[in-house]
Structure formats: C-alpha cells, structure tokens
Amino acid sequence: MGRGSANRRFHQSLWAVAGAAGAMGALLAWSPWSGGSPARGPLGEAAMRHVEALVALGPRPVGSEAHRQAQEYIIAQLQAAGAAVERDDFTARTPLGERRMANIIGQLGTAGGRILVLASHYETLSLDRFVGANDGGSSTGLLLALAPILARLDLHHEIRLVFFDGEEAFVQWSEQDSLYGSRHLAERWKADGTISRIGAFLLLDMVGDADLDLLKDSNSTPWLRDQIWSIARRLGYARHFLDREAAYEDDHLPFLRLGVPAVDLIDFQYGPANRYWHTPEDTLDKLSPASLQIVGEVVLETLRELDRQQ
Asked: pLDDT confidence of 1, banded at 50, 70, 90?
C-alpha cells in the first residue's frame, strides 16, 4: 500500500480453491439478504486461502522468484475461474534502474461495452521478512475469490479484474517512485480508448485487518464512494464503513486524473498506531476471513448495482 505525508498514502495526519458451484450456492444462501452475521462465510474463507497461498511464497518484491510465482498463481486462478487473461508487461524506470513489471488483467462478463474495473496490487514492499499478508495479499486474495462468482453472474457489462505491479516505492514514495503499474495501464488505456469505456473503478487495498475500519477517501469520486457506503449500511456493515474521511494516494489516482469515476477501499489503521503497516508484523494472524467476507459482499453488491445502471 502507498502513503501520505512523507511516507505516502495516508494524508490525514472462492475459488479455484473451493468448489465453484457449491461455494457459489453457499455464498448466496448466506446473508446479506438473510440478515445474518457474515462471521466466517465461504467468500471470506476462499479469499483467506488465496492469501495463505500467496504468503507461503514469502516476500514478493518486484523481480524476485516469489514475485514470478505469484504472477503464475494469479494467472492460473483467473483461468480456472473462466477469465480471459492478459499479461501487461512493461519496463519501469525506478530510482534503482529499470525494472521489468507485469500487470495481470482478467476479463469477465459481456465484452465490448461499458467496463467495470476491480483492482488490487499484488507485489510486496522490498523489505526483509515482509510477507505482506494484508498489504498486497488480502486484496489480491479477495479479487481471486470473487472471480468465479463474477464469472457465473449474468452481467451486462464487462468486468476487468486488474492486478497491478509496482505499487510500492523502491526508495521513497513520490509521484515518480510509486504506482508504476497503474500509471502505465492508465496511459495505455488512454491511448487505445479503453479509458472512455470505464464506468467505475473500484480499488481494494489492505482489506483483511481483523479490526476492519474503512474511512471515506476524499480523493475518490463522491457519488461512487457514497453509493458503496450506502450499500454497506444497507447490508448492516456501517460499523466497518465509517463516516470519517481521509485522503489516500493509491492506484486509483492515475485513473481519477483521466476522468474515470474511482474509489479506494482501504483500512489504513492496521494495528495500534498503524504499527503493522510495512513491517514484518504484517502476517496472517492479523487478518480475519470475516473482514474479507464483509468487503467482498459490499463489493459484489456494488458491482451488481452498477451493472443495473446504464
């Protein structure tokens, strides 16, 4: 995840692993319409299994063997879910020299028309013993768990699941040293006309914290952010989607700057005084399948609602 002030993003200072059809039925049998607690629902459990698989690879900074294995894992899971997969390979200029990177894009739904984007970054910060369970792992795992569900919905729009590379800074967070994958893809989609087809862009980042508290990002598109918060309230999750605001710098910014309606869903209160963030303490024991279930249910209902809107 990115920072704010000197450090970056905080300015305020399931299925290829779980039987697709059966898991889908179990998920839809559970709330939000039944009114029960998400506790340890099938979506959250599937997402957690993906996070565990990624963390088992170890630290996954750009260029590492574990980074390459993470790419292979994401591609395999998307293909198993029935998505058409594209590798968006590019070379980024960093303060440490040129680095080869790759965004991974899975395409679902009805191709050729309006696009709804659901995004995450998948690499981890280059830091000794940093496995990025929450920061990089949680959002990637949740997108992978959502993929087979989205593949089975009768959607009118095209869904693109985007896994960004190079979100983290190599030396110090700045406009030049960060968001490499999202900056590259935004410019590429601007050049080929894809940008004009994007109806909404939903970015997930650090969504697995067992103590889930999402603030409203003041950089996000107001109507889209408010729609998500309204859905969260309707599903009974208001205590996790708070009414306080913060401003985040994240992979949604390059798209916002090109006029794309975009929102960042991120919990940047990770541990006491945010002490787990960007430390070796960002481990699986800090996460909860219930948090992944909650965010996944809100995102899924948001995509359904956006799909009904022309």
From this structure: low
- pLDDT tens-digit map of 206-245: 999 999 999 999 999 999 999 999 999 999 999 999 999 9
Nearest one of 265, 273, 269, 254 to 298, comparing CA atoms: 265
Which residues, at least 6 apart from 170, have a Cβ–Cβ distance to it below 8 Å? 94, 95, 96, 99, 126, 177
Residue indicated by tokens 């709330």: 31
How confident is the model at residue 25, as a pLDDT? 41
Closest C-alpha among 128, 82, 144, 292 to residue 208 = 292
C-alpha count within 13 angstroms, C-beta hemisphere, residue 282:
31
Which is it for the CA torsion 286, 292, 294, 298, positive or negative? positive
Q: How many CA atoms lie within 13 A of 132 on its CB side?
A: 29
Alpha-carbon distance of 222 to 224, in angstroms, equals 6
Q: Is the pLDDT of residue 40 over 80?
A: no
Q: Residue 310: its pLDDT value, please? A: 65
The per-residue pLDDT for 112 is: 87
How much is the pLDDT for 35? 39
The beta strands (E) that lie in the chain are given as 84-94, 97-109, 115-121, 158-164, 198-205, 214-217, 241-246, 262-266
Encoding tokens for residue 259?
């006029």
CA–CA distance, 120 with 143 (Å, rounded to integer): 8
